[in-house]
Structure prediction request, 271 residues.
Amino acid sequence: MTALPAIELYSIGAELLMGQIQDTNTYWMARQIARIGGYVRRIAVLDDRIDDIVGALSDAVSRRTRIVITTGGLGPTDDDLTVDAVARLMGVGIVAHEPIVEAFMQRRGIARRGDLRPGLIKMASVPEGARAHPNPVGAAPGVEAQLGDTTVFNLPGPPREMEALFAQSVEGAIASLYGGSRVSLRVAVNLPESELGPILHRVMRDHPDTYLKAYVALRQQIGNGPRLPVDIVARAEDEPAAGALLNAALAAFQKLVADKGQDVVVLAESE
Prediction:
């Protein structure tokens, strides 16, 4: 496919690395990004260590990643270091975002700023020059910062809050970055992976802006034998063009599979 702007996803938290909590955030975001035509290049889980976070984000910037999304590390405790890491990379200080502070006070019925707990002030703080996105279902706001050509979105770790902020503040930015339309189809074939691989590469070579991926782990019994699911994805300037490209890729795929003495079963349109 034509080179696309890249997105990288990072979940931050020692509890994820110790297996105490499962990282569902990156899985959920990857699905949403694929649905709107985005390209996720890298997913990783990071410890609550500022050097690790700074290093990962710095590397993402050096790779000219267009959008980086982190989840976690925005809470009130000393090991919540995401904002500190971004501020260090930007070379700026950290400041309380006063509208967020005021919202905290109103929500909790606190009249004097001095009565606000330090942890809440910490959650309302952002790197100087960064943008705060109010959290519609929780406390810690999302943070948006610019590091060269890379836009960094920091979202809270709790899935409900992450999903709300992603829909409110991140999804539109991703959609505007890519434009165009993406359509996909899942099919299945009764071929070994060694024979299927060259077919996938040939279809992608002959039909630019398509992507074909086989899922060995999802092999299932369908009809006359165990079949391998294959996703066929096409991207174009609008939905009719993307649909036409998908149909052309599917036809080419079917012919190459037929040359091997097998057929293609259409399973379902992908999300």
